[in-house]
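Team,

Forwarding the record for the chain on the shared tracking sheet. I've put the sequence and predicted structure together so nobody has to dig through attachments.
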Amino acid sequence: MNITAPVEIALRRITLDDNAAVARVIREVSAEYGLTADKGYTVADPNLDELYQVYSQAGHAYWVVEMDGEVVGGGGVAPLTCSEPEICELQKMYFLPMVRGKGLAKRLALQAMDFAREEGFKRCYLETTAFLTEAIALYERLGFEHISEPLGCTGHVDCEVRMLKTL
């Protein structure tokens, strides 16, 4: 008889000690999907190894998903740069394969939008790419609507799917 211990999953705010683990997750998932730095995806972000510092600013928040003490995913929200002050952006939602399909991305996105509302944001924007079909389906279920023109100045030139939701 094979008895396995229950898996412990936690969703919590990022800490300084999480920087390397979150960057590793983003790089692994990006490589899995071919999201290369030369195309302006997150792996090109100059602050990728310092996300705690980025998301410690006012109006910013990032949560990590931890499974049995190991960081296996995360996502955040921040003011949309070069945009109207009431628009935030859902950012850097990355999850390793072992935690996909468990409702954690939905839980994290809802938590991020609750935070954004509390911070006074009225709309939430996101960018992704068409071959991330599971992510797009989730965003649609959460009430994001497709828009044609990009908002802000994210630098993600190959993110051809843009979505917006009223909070």
